[in-house]
Design a protein that fits this description.
The mean pLDDT is 96. This protein has a single domain (5-242), classed as NAD(P)-binding Rossmann-like Domain (Rossmann fold, 3-Layer(aba) Sandwich), CATH 3.40.50. Helix content is 48%, strand content 15%. Strands 3-2-1-4-5-6-7 form a 7-stranded parallel β-sheet, with helices on both faces. The protein starts with a strand and ends in an 8-residue tail after the last helix. It has 250 residues and is of the alpha/beta class. Helix 1 (14-25) crosses helix 7. Bound molecules: NADP nicotinamide-adenine-dinucleotide phosphate (NAP).
């Protein structure tokens, strides 16, 4: 069996690095992209020790959408065919700190929606042209219903969720899977400032579940799966009740 060829965009994320470790240990060839060259080379060095495949790096601020095509071209040059593209970058601003700040609100959308949609659109063209592969994107349970605690971030994720749904229907005919991953809260630098409750999981567990969902070409995967039932219950809460609650997890 040939080694899988995987592009990870946002590879210094704790969750993405855990995913990349799993692929490296399975002998995959990897292209890792992130904006911090120092952190990126530390992640790459760790993977080179663990795996037998190639590990290449590409430094890019993913909100610089004009450079995203360069990343895809570099990944194609390094890997040939791309089996999996994982979109993992994101930011979780403090809702209270940004909600009266339009620039910060739009920056959150740029980091979590605009740049992600731009990259998904271009990666979709690459995978569609090669007639196969898997486009995997990490969204969040926060995108399933708007909540007081994180609605700017959640709304950006909701936009990506709808975009991924349409993209999935378009790419189906070309044999390309779109796997949308919806983690609940994960203990990573992103959530460092949040109080940790019993629903938090570690990045290694999230990474293992994500690799499993990608391997099974799941359309939508809650990480862990019990979040499907939690969010189903949350979706049933009437808006008149919801506005009086302050649900915080996710
Ligand atoms: N942790 C959670 O509870 C949770 C729950 C649901 C979904 N998610 C999603 O999971 C994904 C990974 O997050 P994480 O939990 O692993 O958090 P993390 O460790 O803080 O990783 C976030 C990553 O995004 C990168 N990033 C942010 N803006 C970027 C940009 N403009 N260009 C390139 N990279 C950028 C950061 O790079 P730097 O290191 O350079 O800052 C960092 O590597 C995100 O999409 C997040 O929204 C997380």
């Amino acid at each position: 069996m040939t080694a899988e060829r995987v592009l990870v965009a946002g590879a210094t994320s704790a969750i993405a690095a855990a995913v990349a470790r799993r692929y490296a240990e399975a002998g995959a060839d990897l292209v890792l992209a992130a904006r911090d060259a120092g952190k990126l080379s530390a992640v790459a060095d760790d993977l080179r020790v663990r795996g037998t495949g190639r590990v290449e790096t590409f430094v890019i601020d993913m909100v610089d959408t004009a450079r995203q095509a360069e990343l895809l071209a570099a990944a194609q040059a390094a890997l040939g065919r791309i089996d999996v593209v994982l979109v993992a970058w994101g930011t979780l601003p403090d809702q209270a700190a940004i909600e009266h700040d339009v620039a910060a609100t739009l920056a959150c959308w740029e980091a979590n929606a605009t740049s992600v949609v731009a990259f998904l659109a271009q990666a979709a063209d690459v995978l569609e042209a090669q007639r196969g592969g898997c486009l995997a994107v990490i969204t969040s349970v926060a995108g399933v219903r708007g909540r007081r605690a994180n609605y700017t971030y959640g709304a950006a994720k909701a936009g990506v969720i709808a975009f991924a749904q349409g993209l999935r229907a378009r790419l189906f005919a070309a044999g390309v899977a779109v796997v949308e991953l919806r983690p609940g809260p994960v203990d990573t630098p992103m959530t460092a400032r949040l109080r940790k409750g019993p629903l938090f999981i570690g990045p290694e567990r999230a990474g293992a579940l994500i690799v499993g969902a990608i391997r099974r070409r799941r359309d939508i995967a809650y990480i862990p799966g019990y979040w499907r039932w939690i969010m189903l219950a949350v979706a049933l809460v009437p808006e008149g009740v919801m506005k009086r609650l302050n649900l915080s997890a996710g």
